[in-house]
Design goal:
The complex is a heterodimer of chains A (471) and B (407).
Chain A: H1 17-52, H2 57-91, H3 93-126, H4 133-162, H5 168-172, H6 175-179, H7 184-206, H8 213-243, H9 247-281, H10 288-313, E1 317-319, E2 323-324, H11 342-348, H12 350-353, H13 369-381, H14 396-399, H15 406-419, H16 432-449
Antiparallel strand pairs in A: 1-2
Helix pairs in contact in A: 1-2, 1-4, 1-7, 1-10, 2-3, 3-4, 4-7, 7-8, 7-10, 8-9, 9-10, 13-16, 15-16
Chain B: H1 3-10, H2 20-53, H3 61-93, H4 95-104, H5 106-129, H6 139-163, H7 169-173, H8 191-199, H9 201-215, H10 224-255, H11 266-283, H12 291-317, H13 333-362, H14 372-406
Helix pairs in contact in B: 2-3, 2-6, 2-9, 2-12, 3-4, 3-5, 4-5, 4-6, 5-6, 8-10, 9-10, 9-11, 9-12, 10-11, 11-12, 13-14
Classes of the chains: A mainly alpha (471), B mainly alpha (407).
Chain lengths: 471, 407
Amino acid sequence: MDNMLGMYPTFYVPYIGTAWVMGIIGVIHVVASHTSVGAAFLFALLETKAYRDNQPQLLDFIKRYGLFLLVFSYIIGSITGPGIWYAITVASPRGVSGLIHNFVWVWAAEWVYFTVEVIGVYALVYLVGKIDPLSHLKLTWSFALASWATMLLIVGILSFMMWPGSESWYETGSTSDAFYNINFFAHLGVRTGSMLVMAAVVGLLVVPGMKDEALKASVVRLIAPVGLVGGLFSVIMFLYYLQTLPKNAHVMLEAHLLPIYAEGMIAVAAVTAIYLISAMLWPQMIRLWVAVPLFLFIAIVGVWPEERMRESMRKPYVAGQYIYGNQVIARDVPGKGIVGEVDTIADKGLLKLHPFIPDRLRTITSENKLEVGELLAKIACSNCHSLNPGAPLRSLPDKFRRSTDEDLIAAFLKGPLRHGSVAYMPRIDLPDDEIGAIAHYIATVNGKAGPLKQDATPIAEANPNSETKKE
Amino acid sequence: MDVGTVLNTMRDPAGVPAPPLVFQVLAVVTWVFHIAFVFLTLGSGVLAVYAFYKREAGPFWEQLSLAMTKVAKVGVSLLIVLGVAPLLFTQVIYDPQWYTSNVLSAAWAIGFIFTLIVGYCLWFVFYEANHEGAKRYVGIYAVMSLVLFALDGLIMHVLTYQAIQPDKWMSWYAPGGIVDNSGTTLHAIEWPRYLFIMSLSAPAIGLYLLAYADYLSVRKDKTREYLEFSRNLGRKIAAGGGIISASLALWWQFDLPASTGLRSEPLGWAIPLGFAMLGWLASQRILRLHGYILLSLGAAMIALLAIWRELIRIAYLKPFGYVADAYKIHADLPSTVLFFSTILGVGGLVGGYYLTLLYRAGRVEGTYTASPGVSRLGSAAVAVLVVWIGVFFVYGVAIWLRNAFLA
C-alpha cells in the first residue's frame, strides 16, 4: 500500500540501545548453548570409553558434569534462547518477522529437537546407573546428535541474517536457498569448533571436584585434546568464513571492528591453546581457582566480540540484505512478492507513511520540530545509534562531533545518507523537512551536551584504515 | 489511520509458507502442552512449599514436598521449551498483534527473561536445600521463585491481551499525543482471565497427584499409606480447585465484552461446567476413575480452553477486518517436509525412546534392563538422527553448490 508502511512502534533504550540488550542476552545464550552441545559430544565420547574399557567410574564424571550442565546450560540456555527472540522482537520487529516468515518450519524443526533435548538431558543425568549401560549409551549418543542438530538448524538462519550470498533466494523465495547460503558451512564450522572448545573449558571446571587423581588425569587427557582440535578447526573455518562475507561486512570489519577486537581475539586463542596444552601435560594443575577465571576470560573476551562483530558486520541490514535495521525494506524480493520501501519513503516521508505517528506530529511546525526530530531519529537511527551524547552504542551526537551546525548535519543526511554511499549504513532518503527536523534535534542535543572532549569517529569514516577506538 | 488497514498492512510481506489454518491449529495444539506444564509447575511448586512448612504435621508431608520440588524443577524446563512452539506459530499469523504488544511493553518483555532466569535459579536453590531436616528459611527461596513465576505469567497475559486490542495501541504508545518509547508500562490486564488461568494449577496438581499415586502403586519402596495420603490430598485439591476455577471462569465469561457475542457462545459456558464436573469426578471415592483417565480428562479440558482462547482472539479482531486465514501464501514444500518429518521421525523415535526409558525405569526398583522392543527403539533413535543429519548435509551441499557456482 502506497499510503502506509507496515512499520511498528519504536522501543528505545537510552545509552546502550536495544542492540546491546540483544547482545548481552545473546552472549549468555551462546556460552550456555555452545557448552551444552559440546558437552553432549564429550559425554558420548567418555561414555563410549567407559563402555568399551569397562570404566564405569567415568559415568560419575558424566553425572557430576551433567548436573552442572543441567543448571548452567539448560536453564540459562533454554530461557535465553527465547530471550533472544524477545529481544529482537522489541528491537527489530520487522526483522524478526522476516526471519520467522521465511524460516518458520526450520525453527519449528529446531523446537522438536529442543524438546527432545530437554527430556534427554534429564534422562541422561538421572538414568546413570538406573538403566543398563548399552541403553544409556544409545541415549547419550542420540542426545549428542540431537544437540548438534539444533546447531545445524539455527546456523542457517543466523548466516542468512548476514546475507544469502547469491541472487537465488531473491528470485525464488525458497527457504532452502535462504538457509544454505554462501557462508552457512563456514559459519557452522566456526560454531562447531567453538562448541568443543567451550565444552572442554567447562569440563575443566568440573574436574577439580574429582577425588580420584588417575581418573581425573584420564578425563583431562580426553577432553583437552578435543578442545584443542575444536579450537584449531574453528580458527581455520573462521578464516574461510571471512572469505564468504559481503562487501559491507568487510568495510565494517576493517574500518571499525578489527582495530578494536583483533588483539582480544588473538589473546583468547593463545590463552585457550596454552591452557588446554598445559592441562594435557599437567592435569593436576587444574584447580578451581585456575579453571574459573580462565573460563570467564574465554567466555567473555571470546564470545562478546564474536557476537558484537556478527551483529555489526551485517549492518545496515538485519536480515538477508533486504531489511534494514530501522525496519525499512531495502529492496525488492520478487520471489516473495516483497517490494522495497526506500523510494516510497523518499517520495512521501516517514511522517505520512508510518502508522505509529501521533496526528499532531504528522505535520512539522516550529513548535513541534524538535519533538518530530527526536521521534524520527528514534525511528530511523536508534536501532544502530544511541541518541545520548557519550553513549557506548555508536552515539549519534558524538558521530557528528557534537556539532550544533544544523546545515552541516543536514548536509550529511542529504548527501551520503540519502544516496546510500556509506557501505555499512542504510540508504535513508527523507524529504527535506524531515531531514531538517532531525538535524534540528541533533544540533539541539549537541548544544546541551557541549563540545566533545576527545576525538571520536565521525559518522562516515573518510579513511577506513585510520585508527579508531569507538565503534 | 484506519485500524483494520494498519493491521493488514503490518502483515509480513513475505507471506506464510503453508495455509494459515495449519499454523492456527499448531498454535492451539502446542499451547495445550505448554500450559499443561505451566499448571503442573505452579501447582507442584505451591504444594511443595505448603508441604515444606507442614512437615511437622504428619509423616508424609516432607516426602511429598521433596517429590513436588522435583516435579516443579522438571516442569519449568518443559514449560519453557514447550512454550517456544505456540510463540512461534502465533507470530506467523498474528505478527502485527504480537510484535506491537511486545514493543509497547518492551521493558517487561525483556524483564520476563531475566525474572524467569532468577526465578528458576531460586527454585534450584530451594531444590538443593530442601532435604530432610532443612531449615525453615530455605522455603523463602521457593516463595520468591513462585512470586516471580506469577509475575511472568502476568506479563505473558498482558502481552496476549494487549495484542487483541489494536484500537487502543496508539493511545498506549502516545498518550495525549506524546510518544512514550520506554516500553515500561503494562497497559491492560483482564484479572478474571489471568486469575482463572492461574487457578487451574490447583485442579491440575490435584489430578496429577491421583495419577502419581496410581503410577507408583507398583513400587514396593513406596508405602501404601503414602500413596493413599497423596491420593486423598489429590482428591481434595482437585475438587476444591475445580470449584474455584469454575467460579473464576464464570467471572471471565461475564467480563467478556457484550459486543463480541462471546458471552452467548456455548463453549464459553462449557468451560466452567467442565471444570466443576472434573472436580466432582476426581472427588468420588466410589466411582473411582484411574488417575490416568482423570489426567486425560484434564488435558481435554485444557484443549477446550485453548480453542476458546483462539475463538476469543478471532472475535476481538474480526471487527477490524483481520482474519488469519487471509494471509498470503508462498508455499515452501521442502521446509514443510522438514518440520513434519522431524516431528514424526525425531520426535517420535528419539523423544519416544527417552520417555519410554524414563517411564519404565521409574516403575522399577534397582536397574532397569531394556526389553528387546525398547532396545530396538534405542537403535532406531540413533539411526534416525544419523539419517536426518545425512540428508541435511547431502541436500544442503547440493543447494549450496548450485547457488555458489550455477546461479
